[in-house]
Write a structure and sequence with these properties.
The complex is a heterodimer of chains A (105) and B (764). Helices cover 38% and strands 18% of the residues of chain A. In chain A, a hairpin with a 4-residue loop joins β2 and β3. With 105 residues, chain A is of the alpha+beta class. Chain A is globular. With 764 residues, chain B is mainly beta. Helix content of chain B is 3%, strand content 53%. In chain B, the strands form six sheets. Chain B has a 22-stranded antiparallel β-barrel. A six-stranded mixed β-sheet of chain B has the order 8-9-15-16-13-14. A four-stranded antiparallel β-sheet of chain B has the order 3-2-5-6, with no helix packed on it. The longest helix of chain B is centred in the first third of the chain and has 16 residues. Classes of the chains: A alpha+beta (105), B mainly beta (764).
Chain lengths: 105, 764
């Protein structure tokens, strides 16, 4: 009961926005890196679904904007639906997480 | 028609050229696995993974099942759904067939939803929340287990589950029953905290495959093994109570021994791990000014060496040897067993030596991963000598156990059976005599005994669509003294959905009495020990202890404010059929007799776990108990047991900086309600003189850890920060020669506020 109440209260709250977008990934390590990158001021919660490759972020628009979220993900080497990371950024991903090479198969 | 054929051919050639890529990793370590065989089921189309664990295999037009096989791992089959990349996580073989494998959980203490038993896992993360010098001290943030002092003098800790003494809980080291016989109380100190990889706690009756002994629960301690130990780990600790410790974990990496390689036989590989622990305490403290040491003086040396064997043909094993030497001195502030005059003071002087070998060998039938054979062999010898005031104790135990298990399935994976046979041998030589006080009631009894128990068992597991699991087990054992007895056990689990689960456990457990070492706390008193067993055939006149245990568990996962949480509720009842009753209701004596009437424990517990913010974990738990026994003087609450206990734990860590540095904060506040104290004629004791209950109290523990780099951290902590202590824990402390002298009625902390510092360094 109280679980539902809290969830509703939050969705009506104009102070926070929920957004969902695609982020490249391979494995659990990717998931951990992606979620860790979202551990920043202004982000309430972030959870990544490996199966659908979709990241759901709840953030406070007063403190952070959506473009910044994509920037942070690029910075740890992950492509998102709207922005690709540079090769230099991509080189930071763990060797078992090289999603670009794997797509060539 | 022709065009259809053309399309079919085109499709065929397209599919034939298409490749499926993938990577195979170890589920627990997430490390890539090279040389893994990947093959389409029913075809000869296969490949192996490269050094990076990657593979690429042509897609087969008909085969849909991709089989992934690796020695030392449980084989996996994937149903191919058209993806072009797969990631496979293989689970390492557990050569022991009993016990659940739980991996990849983030939360330090995890309730498993899948296992029908009420399992809780405490991992390294949880153990690092406190100094945790040894196993008995690692349950402070666990609601299911109460850790209390056995007496006010020796500093020995004992545990209780469901309000009943730790002897009714089956404690296992790496799935082999340990902490039994002479070690039933002290055995918890044989595992230093830094040796522990994880602890599995199952409340309620256990599985028949590990014996007839568990009644209130099972605790399985997984030591750091060749699979998961750090290459090198050093932990140093120092407390203001004068306690110093050094722990070393060393896992030398041995690369493929080429000499052993033989193309026909396959290679055999051995992986070792060495564990060492030294502890020393020599400072004498008497904060409560009762003339007795608050903490014992000790020097301990513990060594353990484990070898893991791997072969390419489904055969694997783990072999362990360990040696322990422990000395403990307690009693009057100036007691010194080596000094001619000071050794005359009332004191406790204990010495324990223990050797142990255990071996587990498992064989998994090639291409029939569901069929396996396992054997567990364990041999131990323990020599224990102790002086407790005016009593001298000496005990030797030689034990051997063999357990053979065969596991297979019936028709498909939904029906599994485990069956086997076991043989337990225990030979005890025990002696207790009195130096100066006249009553010699026990020394005339013959305490030596030999127990031989062959047994057979079978267990059936039904798994219906992952929703409903039933484990039904039965064992029959023949004891050389207590003859034939049966142990039925049942575990059920039903999942309403992915989030909520209900479990039910019911079954019977047995135990042979072992009066002196089970109740070693009583030796810290001058109480006269009186055995009143009325079974002419039983060991010291006592019947075999037996009890029924029933439990109902409900657990639910939820999201609150977008964050994960767990709520679990459980209720248990344990009802004794036979029990060896320890009766301290008469002052100056302790009586043991067979239960005549009722003896039971009712327990209920609620635990709430939630993450209110990022990197912040909050736990809140409450448990209620009602434990009553029919004593000679009537039905009474079990003494020295609190009806209520509640605690809350908060753990927070800062965001990890670039080089892995971060801070971790941890605090636990617990409340323990009043306890009944048996009547003593002595007026000075805190709780006697008409007030037969102790006070309730709060206790606060806290720790701050600073991780400097990923491999190096330092910690500072405090225990009992509320500084609550029992000021007069020993009855007649001023007169240790009198019969009323009693250090066994302990109900709270003896030592006040205590601080410690430590460091952990590991090389991975």
């Amino acid at each position: 009961m109280f679980v539902q109440f809290a969830a509703n209260a939050n969705s009506q709250d104009p102070k926070s926005i929920t957004t969902t977008f695609w982020v490249a990934s391979v494995c659990q390590t990717c998931k951990a890196t992606i979620e860790k990158a979202m551990d920043t001021k202004g982000v309430v919660q972030a959870s990544y679904d490996l199966e659908t490759q979709m990241l759901t972020v709840i953030y406070k628009p007063k403190k952070i904007n959506e473009a910044k979220l994509h920037e942070l993900l690029n910075a740890v080497g992950y492509d998102t639906a709207v922005s690709k990371c540079t090769d230099e950024q991509y080189s930071r991903v763990h060797h078992c997480c090289r999603y670009r090479e794997l797509e060539k198969h | 028609m022709r065009s259809l054929l053309v399309i079919a051919t085109m499709l065929w050639s397209f599919l034939a050229n298409a490749q499926l890529g993938g990577v195979v990793v170890d589920k627990s370590s997430q490390e890539v696995l090279p040389s893994v065989v990947v093959i389409w089921e029913g075809t000869r189309l296969g490949t192996t993974t490269n050094a990076e664990g990657e593979f690429s295999i042509p897609i087969h037009p008909e085969a849909k099942n991709l089989v992934i096989v690796m020695v030392g791992y449980v084989s996996d089959t994937l149903f191919y759904k058209g993806e072009n990349f797969v990631r496979v996580e293989l689970v390492a073989h557990n050569t022991s067939t009993a016990g659940a494998t739980v991996a990849g959980d983030k939360s330090a203490t995890t309730m498993t939803m899948r296992n029908p038993q009420n399992f809780q896992v405490i991992d390294k993360k949880e153990l690092c929340k406190a100094a945790c010098c040894n196993l008995s001290e690692s349950f402070e943030t666990n609601a299911s287990i109460d850790a209390t002092f056995a007496d006010a003098i020796t500093g020995t800790k004992q545990i209780k589950m469901l309000g009943l003494d730790g002897k009714y809980t089956q404690i296992m080291f790496d799935n082999i029953p340990a902490v039994r016989g002479l070690a039933s109380t002290y055995g918890l100190t044989y595992v230093p905290g830094p040796w522990i990889n994880s602890i599995y706690i199952a409340k309620g009756i256990g599985s028949v495959t590990s014996g007839f002994e568990s009644m209130t629960g099972q605790i399985n301690v997984a030591h750091k093994s060749p699979d998961n130990a750090e290459k090198l780990h050093i932990n140093a600790y120092s407390g203001n109570a004068g306690r110093m410790e050094l722990n070393v974990v060393w896992r030398p990496s041995i690369h493929n021994q080429e000499g052993v390689e033989d193309s026909k036989r396959g290679s055999i590989r051995f992986h070792p791990v060495f564990l060492a622990h030294g502890a020393y305490s020599s400072l004498r403290f008497d904060h409560n000014k009762d003339g007795f040491l608050d903490n014992p003086l000790f020097s301990n040396l513990l060594l353990r060496n484990e070898w893991r064997m791997e072969t390419d043909r489904g055969l694997g094993g783990q072999y362990t040897i360990s040696y322990m030497h422990l000395t403990n001195t307690a009693g009057k502030r100036d007691y010194d067993p080596k000094d001619e005059i000071r050794s005359k003071l009332w004191g406790v002087d204990m010495k324990t030596d223990r050797f142990e070998f255990s071996g587990k060998t498992g064989f998994v039938f090639p291409e029939k991963e569901w069929k396996s054979f396992g054997s567990q062999v364990n041999v131990s010898w323990q020599d224990q000598k102790g002086k407790y005031g005016f009593r001298e104790y000496s005990g030797q135990q030689l034990s051997a156990r063999i357990n053979l298990l065969f596991a297979s399935r019936i028709l498909n994976d939904n029906h599994k059976i485990t069956t086997g046979a076991s043989y337990q041998f225990d030979d005890y030589l025990e002696r207790i005599y009195f130096k100066s006080i006249p009553p010699v009631s026990l020394s005339s009894q013959n305490l030596n005994r030999r127990e031989m128990v062959p047994g057979v068992f079978g267990e059936y597991t039904l798994n219906a669509k992952e929703r409903f699991v039933m484990i039904a087990g039965l064992r029959a054992d023949y004891h050389n003294v207590y003859k034939l007895f049966f142990t039925p056990r049942l575990h059920l689990r039903y999942s309403f959905n992915e989030l909520s689960t209900i479990k039910l456990v019911a079954g019977k457990g047995y135990r042979t009495p072992n009066i002196l070492m089970d109740n070693v706390g009583m030796l810290a008193s001058n109480r006269d020990i009186i055995l009143q067993g009325n079974d002419p055939n039983g060991i010291y006149g006592m019947k075999m202890e037996s009890a029924w245990n029933f439990g109902l568990i409900y657990s639910k996962k939820f999201k609150l404010n977008h964050r994960d949480g767990t709520l679990s509720l459980d209720a248990y009842r344990t009802q004794f059929v036979n029990q060896v009753v320890m009766d301290m209701e008469q002052p100056e004596e302790v009586r043991f007799y067979n239960l005549d009437g009722k003896s039971y424990s009712n327990s209920a517990q609620a635990e709430f776990h939630w993450s209110p913010a990022r990197r912040l974990e909050w736990r809140l738990a409450y448990r209620w108990l009602e434990v009553k026994t029919d004593y000679a003087s009537g039905l009474l609450d079990k003494p020295l047991l609190n009806k209520h206990r509640a605690f809350t734990n908060l753990a927070f860590s800062t965001k990890e900086k670039s080089k892995g540095s971060l801070w971790r904060f941890d605090g636990t506040l617990q409340w323990v309600s009043k306890k009944r104290i048996p009547y003593t004629e002595h007026q000075d004791h805190d709780a006697s003189a008409g007030n037969s209950y102790s006070q309730d109290y709060f206790q606060l523990n806290a720790q701050v850890t600073y991780v400097i780099r990923k491999d190096f951290e330092i910690y500072v902590g405090g225990e009992n920060l509320t500084n609550f202590m029992v000021h007069d824990p020993i009855v007649s402390a001023e007169n240790p020669d009198s019969q009323s002298f009693d250090g066994s009625l302990i109900w709270g902390p003896v030592f006040g506020r205590m601080g410690y510092v430590g460091l952990r360094w590991s090389l991975n």
